[in-house]
Specification:
Strand order of the largest sheet: 1-2-3
Shape: globular
Helix content: 25-40%
CATH superfamily of the largest domain: P-loop containing nucleotide triphosphate hydrolases
Low-confidence stretches: none
Strand content: 15-25%
Radius of gyration: 16 Å
CATH topology of the largest domain: Rossmann fold
Largest sheet: 3 strands, parallel
């Protein structure tokens, strides 16, 4: 589903529109996609990774790598390679990578996976902040309890079909 919303795949049938009627492949510049795979380089520092990825968005307004890292609660001066980061720090670095081009729609695939309780709490707080800045967030998770505090709507899938669709309970 996220790959279709990101414009990376076409739906098997039907159509998908974002931003009031645009096909996702024509709106990629407005969409940030954090896949389940971290898509970061373990041998580089977080700042080095983000400097590299910022080069992929020429001519677009970008956050500085340092600003993106600060937004996710990481120290841009940390000189350790990402291979030495905790899973929570790696997930936050992946999120910072997605935030570089200042997307309006954030698509997050399992942002809480392999994170300890404190890291999950920090990620939920960050997502609540992004939500308040007129960004739409669509995320997938097997841990519904982590997303519930920030969800406007909760959609549950079973065998690729909608099993339930109900209002969430944003509390943050």
């Amino acid at each position: 589903m996220l790959r279709i919303l990101a414009g990376l795949l076409r739906p098997s049938f039907g159509t998908v529109k974002v931003f009031g009627g645009i096909e996702p492949q024509n709106a990629r510049a407005r969409i940030g996609y954090m896949s389940h795979a971290p898509m970061i380089y373990d041998e580089l520092t977080a700042a080095e990774n983000l400097r590299y990825f910022a080069c992929l968005y020429p001519g677009r307004p970008n956050l500085s790598p340092e600003a993106a890292l600060r937004q996710v609660g990481l120290d841009p001066e940390l000189a350790r390679p990402l291979g030495q980061y905790s899973q929570g720090m790696r997930q936050r670095t992946s999120l910072a990578r997605v935030l570089l081009p200042v997307p309006e729609l954030l698509l997050l695939d399992e942002p809480f996976s392999n994170m300890d309780v404190e890291s999950v709490s920090q990620m939920v707080e960050m997502l609540a902040t992004f939500r308040q800045s007129n960004r739409t967030i669509v995320l997938t998770t097997h841990q519904r309890e982590h997303a519930a505090p920030i969800a406007d709507w909760v959609l549950a899938l079973k065998a690729g079909r909608v099993a339930s669709f109900e209002p969430g309970s944003p509390t943050l």
